[in-house]
Structures are given as structure tokens and as C-alpha cells.
Amino acid sequence: MKTVPAPLTGSGLVDTFGRPLRSVRVSVTDRCNLRCQYCMPEDEYAWLPRETLLSFEEINVLVGVLAEYGVDKVRLTGGEPLLRRDLPTLIRLLRGQASIRDIALTTNGMLLEEQAESLCEAGLHRITVSLDTLRPDRFHTLTKRDMFDRVVSGIARVNEVGLQGLKIDTVVIKGFNDDEIVPLIEYGKTVNGEVRFIEYMDVGGANAWVKDKVFSRNDILLRLEQAWGPIEPEQEHGSAPAQRFRLADGTTFGIIPSTTTPFCATCDRSRLTADGFWYLCLYARHGLDLRGPLRMNDLATVRERIRSGWRNRIDRGAEERKRLESSDGRGQFIELDELRQDPRLEMHVRGG
Ligand code: SAM
Ligand code: SF4
Ligand code: SF4
């Protein structure tokens, strides 16, 4: 079994724009039990070969090295992370690292009812459940699975077992679920969860993104103002992707406006795929191979790749995508042929 390396001294790693390295989203599997049309519309994909998937010990070692360079927040994601057997074991390992102060999970909630208790016992700090609609028929249209009740039962269980920091993440798609913004906020109140609305993004390639389907941050605020009156922005949030607001009745909510108002300037996030490639941006075309040197017990090379990778980081993917709009060049991010050759280009492989 691999052990976490002894820490090196001093982090202070910043990229070419002075952005520090603070967080990593770890995708623990590229598989998923839903087929959300904005993320994984196809039935089959080029799946990552099983032998390339990092073990929990390997993930823990890589997170340990990333922590040497400033990472103190980890989000477990996927694909669907709860499909990875015995995820609480990974959470326990990560809890053993003193410098990791925040371990969060993003899940579609399908397996949450049975796993919430063990996730809580393992020490998960915060949980986010993705839910785009409160209508079972729409849930089926969007995800191609008839499992709305299961997700709602999973969310109910979060409160029963005492898991903290519940957020409900909703991708808002114009003409599909934008009429549910108000009901979703009401639902959030009943489950003690803060709702965060995500603008539809043109990530991956097979998701049929078009600009006309984006229900923007301003559209969302307007809709909520019509229902509740004036909305106040919450205090500054540092590098967090969500802008937070407060309704007149005190309810808080967030908006993640990646498409219309990118927040690349303060982005401190990196991504680790389930097969050990480290990406410096959601839109990056290439990642750095950390699995290769890790499996050769060459942590010096792992460190060097992380250090030089972040120091040379120039990524501002969402801003660049937005700039394309002025020349009318914003459409599908990656063409299908290219996707078939490199599965890591898809959102469900790099963890959203
Ligand atoms: N399967 C888990 C889930 O759905 O919560 C975790 C992985 S999923 C890729 C992470 C997040 O990415 C989800 O909240 C999902 O809604 C979001 N997402 C996927 N495709 C998106 C898109 N095209 N635009 C905006 N958000 C997207
Ligand atoms: Fe699966 Fe999450 Fe993508 Fe939906 S958003 S298909 S649940 S990985
Ligand atoms: Fe960060 Fe890239 Fe997203 Fe911009 S597009 S916020 S740089 S991950």
C-alpha cells in the first residue's frame, strides 16, 4: 500500500496570472447511471480501461502531493461518484490528511438513500446533489431514467443522517426547466438545502449546446425578483464559483454564471480524472499524466509536473469561449470525432 509522502516545505504556488492552487475535483469514475442530455446523451462511450483507474491509495497520494502545493479542498465527483464501490474508504483516507480542510461530494443522488449514513460516518464535510426538475416526467426526459423518486428520497436521507452543507445544483435550460426556478427554491427550503442555479455550459461535445438554450444569470435574477421582490447580493465569496444572493424572506441561493459571466480571473481549481490525468481547466484539451510517474514510484516527477504545470498555467477557458461569441463562433466545444479519440475531453470524465 502506498503511503502519503512527507510534505515538502512551503507552497505558495501561483500560475501566470497569480492565481494560487487551492482545490482539486477528483473524478472517481467515468461511469454514470443517468444520461443527462446536457452531459452524457449517448448510451455508450469510450470508457476508461479498468486497469488505468487510480486506486483509493493512489488518489490519496496524489492529493497529498497536491496539498504540498496549496490544495486544501477536495471535491469528489464523476461520472457518478457513488457508483465507485466503498467511497467512504477514500473519504476516510483523505480525512487523515491534516492539510485537507474540506471534503465535498457532488452526486446525482441515485444511490444516496443507501449511502448517506456511511458517507456521513466517514467524515464527508459537504454534499451537493444535482437535481434539475421537480417533475418526474421531465426528469425522465432529461436523464432517460425514471428515477425521480429515488433522488428525492436520497436528498431526504441527507437530513436524517445529519450530513451537513447540502446544496442542490440545477442546470437551467431555457424552455425546458426555467419555469421551475421558483418551485426549486421552495423545495430547497423544505430540505434545508441551498439551491444553486448553473448556466448551461458548452462543455464536452455531444451535448447539443446552443446559446439560445442558456437561461442567464440575469434571467434568473429577474424571474426571482418577480416572485420575491428585491434581491440582495451576499458578501464576497473569494474564489468560489457561485455568486450568492439573499431573497427578501432571508433565503439564500447561488448562481454559477460560467457561460455569461466567467470567473476565470480567480479560478484556483484543478481536476484529476479517474485515470490520473491532471487538468488545469474545465476546457483544457490536454491533461498532465500523473499516473505514469506515480506507478513508477517516481514522486519527484509527479511533483515537477504539478509545480511546472501550475506555474505555466495560462488557462481561462470560459472567458475564451465567451470571446468567440463576438465572431459568432461559439458552438459545440469539441467535434464528435475528436471526442471518440480522447474520452477525457468529455465533462463526465473530467468531473464537471
Ligand atoms: N454525476 C454527478 C452529478 O451529476 O452531480 C457528478 C458529476 S456531474 C458531471 C457534475 C455537475 O456538472 C452536475 O451538477 C451537472 O449538472 C453539471 N453539468 C454537466 N454538464 C453540464 C453542462 N453542459 N452545463 C452545466 N452544468 C453541467
Ligand atoms: Fe451523470 Fe452527472 Fe453527467 Fe448527469 S450530470 S449524466 S448524473 S455525470
Ligand atoms: Fe477555471 Fe477554466 Fe472554469 Fe475558467 S473555465 S473558471 S479557468 S476551470
Question: Explain this structure to me?
Answer:
By secondary structure, the protein is an alpha/beta fold. It is 32% helix and 15% strand. It has twelve helices and twelve strands. The protein has helices at residues 56-68, 87-95, 112-122, 136-143, 148-161, 181-190, 217-228, 291-295, 299-311, 317-323, 336-341, 347-350; strands at residues 23-27, 73-77, 102-107, 126-130, 166-172, 194-199, 232-233, 243-246, 252-256, 269-272, 277-279, 288-289. The chain has a twelve-stranded mixed β-sheet. Strand 11 and strand 12 form a beta hairpin. Helix 1 (56-68) packs parallel to helix 2 (87-95). The longest helix has 14 residues, at 148-161. Mean pLDDT is 91; it is low at 6-10. The structure holds S-adenosylmethionine (SAM) and iron/sulfur cluster (SF4) (2 copies). The site of one iron/sulfur cluster has 12 residues, from loops.
Describe the structure in brief.
The chain is an alpha/beta fold and 352 residues long.
Shape: globular
Mean pLDDT: 91
Q: Count of DSSP helices?
A: 12
The proportion of strand residues reads 15-25%
Structural Rg: 20 Å
Terminal CA distance:
30 Å
Structural class: alpha/beta
Classify the helix fraction into a percent range: 25-40%
- Tell me the total number of β-strands: 12
Largest sheet: 12 strands, mixed
Bound molecules: S-adenosylmethionine, iron/sulfur cluster
Q: Pick out the low-confidence regions.
A: 6-10
